[in-house]
Specification:
Pathway: Carbohydrate degradation; pentose phosphate pathway; D-ribose 5-phosphate from D-ribulose 5-phosphate (non-oxidative stage): step 1/1
Number of domains: 2
Strand content: 15-25%
Family: Belongs to the ribose 5-phosphate isomerase family.
Helix content: 25-40%
CATH topology of the largest domain: Rossmann fold
CATH architecture of the largest domain: 3-Layer(aba) Sandwich
Mean pLDDT: 91
Number of helices: 7
Bound molecules: ribose-5-phosphate
Low-confidence stretches: 1-23
InterPro entries: NagB/RpiA_transferase-like (IPR037171), Ribose5P_isomerase_typA_subgr (IPR020672), Ribose5P_isomerase_type_A (IPR004788)
Keywords: Isomerase
Number of strands: 14
Shape: globular
Oligomer: single chain
Protein name: ribose-5-phosphate isomerase
Length: 268
């Protein structure tokens, strides 16, 4: 009844174009809600399964990790856990401080028990694209020091081949003076197109936490040997890191729109 009355009022007040627009934005909002919920269930699940008392925990970067840190803070408080948190970015450090968690660093904690991090895309072999938010270098260092790396993501990141879902390419962090020769070398070696990532609230390029630029490599061949690509690009002078994570991740949790979590392990 109430709905019918409201709907009739809406009809009286608005023209049909406005109504269609309202319903579209309502449905966009509910889609956004489920994406956030999907991130949250994946993050909570990973923290509940992998964080233990006295562990050294690698804190990834991005919007999904925000939920992991939230859950960690809850568990630290309610279960009186002792956890040392090593950040993978400025953002991760801020999250640790905001939640009054114990901040660690690789200098004092060179071995990390478990790192939980997001990803831009995860293929069927658990090769990852990371760095959509510009944080790949410290993420890869911390992951490489971790006994386990666990990925948390919503269902849109789950793909068969890299490039199926994530269309912004593979990020490459480079020393600023070398961005043009690196761009040319990567294109001549593997094809595709490369864009220097531009900042949004600043004129000019994105500058990473480490003072470098980011090239986004829009590859066209989805069947490349990613391990070879990773090591070949890494060898180009001026390349600091590439956002390809090959054989680094032991488990991925994908939150689903219905609220369940799909788990994936590397193929044996
Ligand atoms: O540079 C950013 C990181 O690699 C993130 O972990 C990745 O972009 C996924 O971020 P989000 O959880 O926001 O999708």
């Amino acid at each position: 009844m109430i709905f019918k009355g409201t709907f009739n009022n809406l009809l009286r007040c608005c023209n049909s174009a406005v109504i269609v627009k309202s319903f579209r934005s309502l449905s966009a909002n509910s889609q956004k809600m489920s994406l956030e919920e999907a991130k949250q269930v994946a993050a909570y699940r990973a923290v509940d399964e992998f964080v233990t008392n006295n562990c050294v925990f690698g804190v990834g970067s991005g919007s999904t990790v925000v939920y992991a840190v939230q859950r960690l803070a809850e568990r630290v408080e309610t279960e009186n856990l002792k956890v040392t948190c090593v950040p993978t970015s400025f953002q991760a450090k801020q999250l640790i401080l905001k939640h009054n968690l114990t901040l660690g660093e690789l200098e004092t904690n060179p071995v990390i028990d478990v790192t939980i991090d997001g990803a831009d895309e995860v293929d069927s072999k658990m090769t990852l694209i990371k760095g959509g938010g510009g944080c790949l270098l410290q993420e890869k260092i911390v992951a490489s020091c971790s006994k386990k790396m666990i990925v948390i993501a919503d269902y849109t990141k789950d793909s068969v081949k890299l490039g199926d879902r994530y269309k912004k390419g593979i990020p490459i962090e480079v020393v600023p003076m070398a961005y043009v020769p690196i761009r040319n070398k990567v294109i001549s070696l593997f094809g595709g197109e490369i864009k220097l990532r531009s900042a949004i609230a600043k004129a000019g390029p994105v500058v990473t936490d480490n003072g470098n630029f980011i090239l986004d490599w829009l590859f066209t061949n989805q069947d490349l040997d990613w391990k070879k690509v990773d090591s070949t690009i890494k060898m180009i002078p001026g390349v600091v890191e590439i956002g390809l994570f090959v054989d680094m991740c032991q488990k991925a949790y994908f939150g689903q729109p219905e609220g369940n979590v799909v788990e994936r392990s590397p193929p044996s």
